[in-house]
Amino acid sequence: MVVGGHRGMGMNAVGAPPEARVGAVRERENTLLSFGRAAAHAAVAFVEFDVQVTKDGCPIIFHDDFILTQEIGGVNEKRVTDLLLEEFLSYGPQKNSRKISKPLLRRNKDGRILNWSAKEDDSLCTLQEVFEHVSPRLGFNIELKFDDDIIYERSQLDRALQAVLQVVFQYASNRPIFFSTFHPDAARIMRKLQSSYPVLFLTEGGTAQYNDSRRNSLDEAIRVCLEYDLHGLVSEVRGVFRSPSAVLRAKESNLALLTYGQLNNVWEAVYIQYLMGVNGVIVDLVEEISNAVSDFSKPVLNQSMLGSGVNLVGAKHQAFSEQQLGFLLRLIPELIQQPH
Asked: Which stretches make up the GP-PDE domain (predicted)?
């Protein structure tokens, strides 16, 4: 099992209390600082980050569809892909201290607009800068980001994907890379445009519903992968726990299976996936979970070793019998569908 850092060392959740385990990470997400910190952990195989393309054709790193700032008269909100590169880089901290920066705001899940702050800030960056400044040993999961509320023409998808590929081909060298996207047509096109790097289909795994039926279940995601000759899928972890047989179907279809989601910040949930045969997890608690996954492969202690006072980190990870694992897999789908 491999571990990937979600947007670097973890996503920022505006409004999260300081004591929150997830969302209160020190570093601003999707920045060179966050990627560099993730690269310092040997157990982290890759970082996941979101790539969009500016109006003048530059691939940049940013998750949200819209970028918000405070101006005289109120909040100014613009679509990221409608910005020129220079304007995009004017938001947040500036590399050049003489430049005036625009404060970054973010819309919370409940609709409130809050100041987007991080304990350790960093400037926004481009895809080229990430290749140039992040350790070449760290793999990249490049998420090709598109707005769910837009119906894209083929020419729009081509333009964005070609811009990303131009940077990748020029700067990737021997770095491990794979692409992922929630947009099934973007995945299909990227697979046809190149054969150097794997393309994976991102799915909510049935935990959310969309007008495009290809996005509404793990069965559909596997079908999309096989029809478009993709290399695998990245599912919301709850989708895998609700349909554990999907792991076997993916394996039988020679597809890689990775997961993402809040449950991946709980090592016990990650351990169950390890036993199920999931290939990788994308996490926010990067140091904690990567260390736990490293422990999974260590020898399980027997009783005589425990009695002798030997203390190994891997001792907490006990192997389940097939009967116990079967019980857990039957129980988990019921638990995660209970109202909270």
From this structure: 1-293
Print the SS3 string covering the chain. CEEEEECCCCCECCCCCCCCCCCECCECCCCHHHHHHHHCCCCEEEEEEEEEECCCCCEEECCCCEEEEEECCEEEEEEHHHCCHHHHCCECCCCCCCCCCECCEEECCCCCEEECCCCECCCCCEHHHHHHHCCCCCEEEEEECCCCCCCCCHHHHHHHHHHHHHHHHHHCCCCCEEEEECCHHHHHHHHHHCCCCCEEEEECCCCCCCCCHHHCCHHHHHHHHHHCCCCEEEEEHHHHHHCCHHHHHHHHCCCEEEEECHHHHCHHHHHHHHHHCCCEEEECCHHHHHHHHHHHCCCCCCHHHHHCCCCCHHHHCCCCCHHHHHHHHHHHHHHHCCCC
Instruction: Quick: pLDDT tens for 178-199.
Output: 999 999 999 999 999 999 999 9
pLDDT at 83 over 90: yes
pLDDT at 312 over 70: no
- Give the whole-angstrom CA distance, residue 143 versus residue 150: 17
Tokens coding 333: 């789908």
Residues paired with 47 in a beta bridge: 5, 140
Distance CA 226, CA 250 (A): 10
| Residue 147 · residue 186 · CB < 8 Å | no
CATH numbers and ranges of domains, the chain: 2-296 (3.20.20.190)
Cα radius of gyration (the chain): 21
Give how far Cα 319 sits from Cα of 243, 274, 326, Å.
22, 11, 13
What's the chain's average pLDDT?
A: 89
pTM beyond 0.70, yes or no: yes
Residue 303 has pLDDT above 70, yes or no: no
